[in-house]
Every structure is written in C-alpha cells, then in structure tokens.
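Re: your question from the hallway

Yes, I did run it. Sequences:
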Amino acid sequence: MNTRDAMTAGAEPAAVVTGLGCVSALGPDTKQFWDGLVSGRTGIAPVTGFGHDHLRNPCAGEVRLTPQMVEYARKRGIESRLSLFAELAAGEALGGSALTKADLRARKVGLVLGVSCGMALVRSGINSMVENAGAAEESLDDLTDLAGDLADRLGIRGEAFTVSTACAAGTNAIGLALDLIARDGYDAVVCGGADTLDRMKYLGHSALNTLTPGGIRPFSADREGTIFGEGAGILVLEAARGLDGRTPLALCAGSGFSCDAHHVTAPDPDGAGAIHAIDEALRDAGLRPGDIDYVNLHGSGTPHNDAVESMALAEVFGSAAAAVPVSSIKASIGHVMGAAGACEAVATVLAIRHQRIPPTVNTLEKDPAFPAHLVCGQALDWQIHHALSNSFGFGGCNGTVIFSRCTP
Amino acid sequence: MHPFPGMVLSGVGLVAPGGTDTTAFFQALQQPAPETAPPEDPAPRRPGHPDRRVGMDEPRLKMARYMDPVSRNAIVAMRGALRESGIEEHRIAAAPHQYGVVLGTTRGPCVTREGLYASLTSRQGKMVSATLFSHCGYNIAGAMTAIAFGFKGPNLTLAARGDLGLVVLRRALGLLAGDRAHTVFAGVSECDGAARPTGIPFGEFAYWLCLERKDTARKRGATLLAEVDMEDRAVPQRHPLPREERAAATVQGFETTDGTAAPSVRKLTFPLPGLPAGADRYLTLFLVGLLACDPGIRDRFSAVTCAAGTGPVATRIRLAFPEREPAAV
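Structure:
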C-alpha cells in the first residue's frame, strides 16, 4: 500500500524512519550536521590529508578526526576510514531508533550500504588519503566484506550488502531498504552510504574539470563545478507495524530508480532519466507532484548537472515548479559521493522534523534560467508534509526518495 | 511466503574462458575441460580468461574492445542473453525504462585502475587520465551495458559476502515484484587483476540471467526456460557469517509431470568442479541457469527445487518448466 492510499485508508504505511546518523565535515554527529546546515555554515576548507599540488581546487569537505573518533577506531580495531565513518553513523542511528541488541537478534534486520569508489585507490588506515603506488598495493578494493563486517559489528543478522552506483549509491541504498521492508518482510533495515576523500579522486576530478576552481555555488548562474567531501549518512528504516509505541521521525514514502544510458560522466541533456526517477518515486509513494513541499536537490554545482536537474523539476512540477522551495546542502559539506544521497536524506528528514529548509550556502542568487524557488541566504521556515531528495551519479545512475511527515 | 511470484527466466548469456556457448559452459561446470589455447591462436589466452576477441564481430560491439574487461565481457554476455531471450532492439527502444540491470561484482574494473596508476606515474605524479578515472567506478560495467543496449530502468551494482549471486537474484526479482521494471537482467562480471598480490588466479567471466514478469514474457510470445518461485526458508540468521563462508546450494528434489517426486535424481555435485576460480560466490546464479538450460533435466522433469544460500540469505527456489506443468491432484 503506498503512502497516499495508506493515509486515505487510515492504514499504516510500509516503512518509517526511526533513527538517523551522520558524520560530515560539519561534525561527527547529526546535531552538529543539522545545526551547521541551518546556520548556513560550511565545513569546506583546505584539505589537510594530502598535498594541494596539481589540484584544480585545494578545498574539500574533509572530516577532521576527533580524539574520540581515533580512540573509537583503535578500540574497535577499525583500520579503514570508510568503515569508521559508516560505523559511527550507524551507531548513532541505531541508538536513536532505540532498537536493542536483543531486537536485532530477534527481528529480521538487514543492512544496505551505498559507496562509490570507497577506498579502492588508497592504502589502509583511518588517516589514509594517499593513493596506492600501484595495483599491487590495493588492499581495500574488494567490496565483498564491507557491508558484512559492518553488520557483524552492529549485530545485524539479516542480508547485508553494498550497492555501488557512484553518487546515487546512498539514495539507491535507501530505496532498496524500503523494498526489503515493503516486499521481503524485513522488520528493519539500516541503510545509507559512506565515502572518503583521497588525492587520487581529486586528481581525477581535476582532470575531468568537475572540480570548481573557486567556490561551489549550486544552481547559481556562475557555477563552475563541485567540491567533494566525505562522511556517512545512515537511516534506520522500520516496518511501521513493529514500532511498539515508539514515535517515528518520518515516513519513508517511496523511491525511484533509473539509468540515463547516455554517457559515463555527462547526464542525459534531455533529463529523461532524472524525470523518470522522480516520477517513479511519486508513483511509489502514491503522491502527485503538487503534494511535494520541498526538494533536496542533488545540486552538485556543475553546469550540466544543475541544468538537467532544473529541467527535470520543471517537467515534473510544471508551472508549480517556481513555488516549490528547493535547496542543496553540497556547499555545506561537499559532494560526499556515495554518502551524498544518504546525508541528504538525513537532512530531508530533519527538514520535515523541524519544518525548516536549510539554505544553499554560497549561492547568493539562483540562475535566472531556472524556475525553481531556491532557498539561499538563510534557512526558511516552511510547512513540509512531503519532501523529495534526488541523487544523480556517474554511469547515469539516478535515485529519488520521498519522505513524509508523520501525522499524530 | 512467496515473496517473488510470477517471474520467469527467458534467457542466459555469458562469456567464460571457453567462449559464449551456454551449453558448453554448463557442461564444463560439471566436468571441467582442460585449459588450453586453440592451436591456431598465436597469442595463448591466460588460464581462466576468455579470448579477448570473443564477441567482437558486431560493429556496435567493436567499441567494447577498448573497455575494461568487466565492461567488455558484460556487454558481450548481454548480447547473448538478449538473443537467447528473443528481446529485440525495438522492444527496448519502445520502453527503455522497463529494462533494468542488477550486477554483482567484487573488485570492479581492476584493470582500469592499473592503468590509472600507470597514467599517474607516466605524468610524474601530477595528473591522471580523465578517461581512465571516469571508468574506475564499480558500476562501470552495468553502466556501459546500459549505454550499449539502451536500458534505462534501475541499474544497480551489488557486493556481499557469501552467496552474492543469490543477493543479486533476490534484488532482481524484487525489482520485478515492485513493478520497477518488467525485465531485469541479473548477473555478474568479474576480472582478474594481474597484479593481485596473492597470486591466485581469479578468472574472468560475465553472465546474465534474463528475468521477466510472466505476463510480459507471455505477451511478447517468449519461449520460457522456467518459472521462478522463491521463498525464504527461515528468518535469516547471522552467527556472524564467517569471512570465509562460501555459497552453498543443494538440489532438494525433482518433480515429474504427475506431481510426484522423481524416484531417481540426477546427481549434481557441489561445489561444481568446473566453476571458474573465485566464482563460487555466484553459485546460485549458475545453478539456476544450469537447471533451466540442461535438456537432460527439462525433458525429464516438470520442476526442480533448490535450497540456496547460507547464513543471512537462506532461500528456497523452485524452477518450473512451463510446458511440463504438473497435473492437478
């Protein structure tokens, strides 16, 4: 039963959000993440983990490891920066959900983790951001154990797998988790994404010119590219039937998937893939475009991606596009790649919880060619019943997820 | 519980060290053939790797020559799956968003990464090849396959411990059950990295199962290999799953046309002796294809039931051969 039908019939929707976790350049937890977003702060700064020579931009949304994080990694025997971020965020999310270890043992609980390249190109170590000398040094290129190890540490006993769909991975992970609950009978799924920065990725994006030489200004007329970040965003999705009196944070109403099938890096200029992902999410949720009160943009700040996303929103929302507030958080934490969709989902759920839309930092004025109502400057208090979050990745992989406010 | 009812298998395509012949592949899985290069081949293949020229006979596929092997092989294997399932280009073009891909991979495009490191070295550590970098994503094989054939539905690349093939299969059927596409290709593409420090040859292969909603397949007049029913055997339990845990599958039984269990069961030994090195994690995918394509099984039985997976994913799979449905009891 989709969200609309459920709400009409007074029945329970399939899945709800009960826990959130986030590690980002704004801080090691969700509170610092949200406070930073709505204050208009940015965690983007000159990188300390690798040298700046030959890079198109020396800045990134780097996670500064606190002594507590380092000690946590040492005690837990964690040697991968990516695993550290994922576990910290997952731990926070599970703590917020109030699911106990006994619950995880007794119920059908799974894990879906999104990641892009992860740490394939770098050496092991929680401070590691320098590339391997060659393929013979690769030790973290095999994704086999990434999700399984995390599931073991958390005490999760159900299916645990990684989805690697570039910058759409986090959103795709949430969509798959929703399906596991709605159709596979799972009681709960810990889902989201994690990713890390390294010099090789920055050299690669410098060569591709996806990195802006200046600041990241999503949906601005003078946008020149993106800036990358790292971290993790994790949500606990649960079947609404198993809440036992706990109050959910939001409903996870629907998701959509698509592929541009156009080019490895450039989006389909027609926006057909993006449109389809948004349409599919709306269909899955049983909602109409007019029901959406906020769109958390992919908003990477690249000339082509922003233009295509704007076109897609105009196509889906029609004349109402100018009235729906939208914003991108990538100028606050950077484009966190495989974790982007998940961190943005956390932000979207918090926007619903607080009825407040975080601003698009750095963008003073939106591109006049875009019809969207871009929230910039400062946070906007807004009545949000349903909110949508987009993610578009290399390889043409697209994902959209919709969250809805819980009615008392 | 039957979480994925009403799905069918309509085609199989692959690239393996022996080539693209599915019959030969499934026979080799059960009885490995010696790994030797054909005498007329002046450049012998590496053990566990297919001839790099295989499948490069269509102008459209010639572009695949320059790709990472995981992408190239995935494209060639997909061509075979489309041919076997009878899905023509015009059908895909008419409804591209109805065609999805779920791909399993573990190390991704490791040959491309080798090239990326080399490009950095050759440029004195100052820059890398933009082309190679853009092809380093784990989803590159799925993406290039979608580009080659115009698939615009869900495109997912997955990795997991244990029986990755079963995870891929379940997600593919899940997409169909959720009406996210009417045709989903579930498969794998893996490739050995020559510099792998362990020195153990991994092998190189790509493999696709074409899965469709039954109503869609019947509407286009497809020849069905099998109907696929799947249910969880039990609530998944991890204890935790050991890192070295391997995929396991057993054939539980065969049914004859009158619905009774077959008195004599053709034995399949596990692990399949001819399984490519490192491919045991895809055992369930290969098993489904083998059982559905083997005429010795299809001609004798109406259905076969398997138990697949260990630890977190324990699933019962029943393949029914449509033309030999058991009579009502």
